[in-house]
Design brief:
38% helix; Histone, subunit A; 95 residues; mainly alpha; 3 helices
Length: 95
């Protein structure tokens, strides 16, 4: 498969880009080089390679969730500029 200037113009139109003739030619060459490289990958023997969703094993690195006592509400609200009913009181953001 190869990319033509018509393909590049079509994609540019979909992306609402205006490309000059030189840009169209350059992108056509670049996209064809990418496809040529991808075709080289088809030459690899992958018959005995197990399919994977990720190249490295994924491990959950989070710590265990341990229940601990909370800080006393008096200590938490000690430096609050304003509090009401054991909660931080802040200026209204909606009218």
């Amino acid at each position: 498969m190869s990319i033509t200037a018509k393909n590049v113009d079509h994609v540019a139109k979909l992306a609402r880009l205006q490309l000059s003739e030189a840009d169209t030619e350059r992108f056509t060459d670049q996209l064809n080089a990418i496809l040529k490289y991808a075709e080289k990958l088809n030459e690899l023997d992958t018959d005995h390679v197990e399919p994977t969703s990720h190249p490295m094993p994924l491990v959950n690195v989070m710590r265990e969730d341990n229940v601990r006592p909370s800080w006393p509400i008096e200590s938490v609200l000690k430096n609050a500029p304003d509090e009401e009913d054991g909660q931080f009181k802040v200026p209204a953001v909606l009218e």
